[in-house]
């Protein structure tokens, strides 16, 4: 399908706003046509990972200069030529990155890798892109509003934007977000359109889901049940809060491909089950009861064998200030066990709040690290010799053991902090 | 690319072009959706997701036949990276259109199709020989390998 372009978009494609914008439009048109989109939608809220790359990718483009400009042109814009990348005009932010800006040595990063990280960050800032360095931009200064068209990467942020806020974004990729930063356009497809946002399957919740832990397990069940479809959840879900949506969405996006969900009476486009479906419920009907809950818990814990935990990772998605306060409360007066490590991940913005509020100090005094920018899965950084890890995040439990070839346990934040302080996993399902 | 086939294909499927071009090779088929970032090691072109039916299998140089993409928004970047490491698939055939799969196919720059008149997952098995002509919108299948 050939996309319908406005006169301005045709001029952009043809180079009226410079070569970089022309290359961005070329990529976005190829992408829009692949989707079957009819036209573009304007966006001025873009979240991606523009131009950041490890050293080996720059070396791959050595013939093109091996620098930020080469990577942005060849990889981000998928361009056959290297172009000058102008200062970005749109409201754009950089999501999570590869290492902590201060504790990178503890993460096992080399001086060379850190120098590369710093150079990329200077380029990002120099191009007018906000350095949020987090998977939770909505906790660090980028909160869309209902109906706002966005172009976001990061599946957990995408599902939060669509479901909890009522913002409109597809699960964009690195190349489409970098191009959108230049062109301020994305294909008008999927979640930008009303008809695409309606529920497709019903999940009836018949066991109480109230805490972060329970919301996380329900999310993992939901993704496995509906895959990439839009679920409508109804029933025994209570005590909604930002951090619970954050865990639910992240889990649903990793076990399936959920990019939007409705919870009747809870999320903004679901005042009722019927409203969420745009009519009578349709699709499949799934039940989440005590048996399903136990099965999900067992599935998440199927990759744990040894109970000697040598690494506890919290902060997936990045912890909020409220979660750091909770971690500090659980750590107060305790020490991380000599055979274990505790790393807690958040954004720089939230870390600043945690410093001011005293949580960071308590966490450090307990012998834990409070890290920003990244997580173990993104950076592939775990403490040396890690064989068995523990998480309070279904998403991280899904990814990190597979990426690093280690064992993993899933439980509550309390289970995790107890494991960090005793070196033993004692989590169980009550 | 001139087809190597000396006999007519066993199955012919029509579909919509996602990325144009013509290619042929051996099929690698999964009935499970594929996670890119965190589910694929781009240095090896290998599926690493726990419990995935392709866990440990490489799609490098194969026609990847799968229902669709799932998981992280890093899908396109991971498949794009396989182009750099020389571990890219030869072509993609998938049923469920998502932004992940569309963008991934675009930056992989390999012949890719979707919206079929007949489900490739019902007709193609791992090891079958598949020719994608995404310029004319056809997929030809020879059962059991290279004809």
Brief characterization of the structure:
Chain B: Pfam families: AcnX_swivel_put (PF01989). Chain A is 40% helix and 15% strand. Chain A is α/β, with parallel strands linked by helices.
Describe the SSE topology.
The complex is a heterodimer of chains A (430) and B (147).
Chain A: H1 7-13, H2 19-35, E1 40-42, E2 46-48, H3 55-60, H4 68-76, E3 92-94, H5 111-126, E4 130-131, E5 151-152, H6 155-165, H7 174-183, E6 185-187, E7 201-209, H8 212-226, E8 231-237, H9 242-255, E9 262-263, H10 273-277, E10 285-288, H11 290-300, E11 311-319, H12 321-331, E12 342-346, H13 348-357, H14 359-365, E13 369-372, H15 376-379, E14 388-391, H16 394-404, E15 407-410, H17 413-422
Parallel strand pairs in A: 2-3, 2-5, 3-4, 7-8, 7-10, 8-9, 11-12, 11-14, 12-13, 14-15
Antiparallel strand pairs in A: 1-6
Helix pairs in contact in A: 1-2, 2-7, 6-9, 8-9, 8-11, 9-16, 12-14
Chain B: E1 11-14, E2 16-19, E3 22-29, E4 34-35, E5 40-41, E6 46-47, E7 63-66, E8 69-70, H1 75-85, E9 91-94, H2 99-108, E10 112-114, H3 120-123, E11 129-133, E12 138-142
Helix pairs in contact in B: 1-2
Domain Phosphomevalonate dehydratase small subunit-like (chain B): 34-112
InterPro entries (chain B): PMDh-S-like, PMDh-S-like_dom
Organism (chain B): Croceibacterium soli
